Amino acid sequence: MFDFRTRGAGAMVRGCAAALALLAAGAAWAQGYVARTLDKPVPGGVAVVPLGEAELAPSAQYEGRPVLVMRDSDQQWVALAGIDLKTAPGGKSLKVTVDGRVRSVGFDVRAKRYKEQHIKLKNQSYVNPDPAQQARFEREYKAQIAAYERFRPELPSNVMLDRPVDGGRLSSPFGLRRFFNGEERNAHSGLDFAVSKGTPVKAPADGVVTIVDDYFFNGKTIFLDHGQGLVTMYCHLSAADVQIGQAVKRGQVIGKVGSTGRATGPHLHWNVSLNGNRVDPAIFIGAFEP
């Protein structure tokens, strides 16, 4: 307690400010581990939204899509909402249903600025595909979007994910505005690991294989569905060691690093998606940079 009787007005103000700061710090510390670790509510980030202490799990939707709901370490229910990279900063909300009652729960999206990347490609078709290549890409894109938007009711085995490869530096980060041969294309939707060809790629959590294919831009590709809208993708592989429909365990080798598709050298491109939105994989491995 602060003894205001022996202090002047300035001391009283400072004492009140200190007390409020302590209370704020205590409130932050009272959050569960998932909220403290994964709550990065920026475009391309994750909003961990508290939903209270209901006995049964609430359900939640963000922009019409179901979102992952789980108990945090403090036993509070939380929703993990993936935020699209093109989202404007400002107030957003979840539609939450608890015991049959529907309410709106708000959260704020903060601003974040992403860097630019300029890449030179020898194969001009990877910059401006011909009509047949474009048609192929559109077919492949639809299959990927369908995989991202699946929502299995099973909870992920873990939401703090393992790195999919051992060693290697993080090269191209998520969110880069990318220019290929001087022409701007979609922002970088994943995180790249600079590792050598043949490096084993491991599942960062339990999952079910939903795609194994060889795509025009992505090269050899694997999708894993971890449950409740948490989906990961692995691109430019030299080999895939799993089949569609196969259940895999955390740490299991699913493929090997390569440079297939639109790649300038061996590396792993890793995507993480929540409720159909691509989000920064660095959040899930403790490497996020504000």
Q: How does this structure look, described?
A:
With 290 residues, this protein is α+β, with helices and mostly antiparallel strands. The chain contains 3 helices and 20 strands. It has helices at 9-30, 33-38, 131-148, and strands spanning 46-52, 59-62, 65-66, 68-71, 77-82, 90-98, 101-109, 116-119, 169-170, 177-180, 183-184, 191-194, 200-202, 207-215, 219-227, 230-240, 247-248, 253-257, 268-274, 277-279. Residues 1-29 have low confidence and may be disordered.
For this structure, what is the CATH class of the largest domain? Mainly Beta
**End-to-end distance:** 36 Å
- Count the strands? 20
Gross morphology: globular
Count up the domains: 2
Work out the oligomeric state of the chains in this entry: single chain
CATH superfamily of the largest domain: Glucose Permease (Domain IIA)
Please describe the biggest sheet, giving its number of strands, its sense, and whether it closes into a barrel: 10 strands, antiparallel
CATH architecture title of the largest domain:
Distorted Sandwich
> What structural class do the secondary elements suggest?
alpha+beta
Give the helix proportion (percent range): 10-25%
Order of helical and strand elements: HHEEEEEEEEHEEEEEEEEEEEE
Number of helices: 3
Radius of gyration: 22 Å
What number is the mean pLDDT? 86
Low-confidence stretches: 1-29
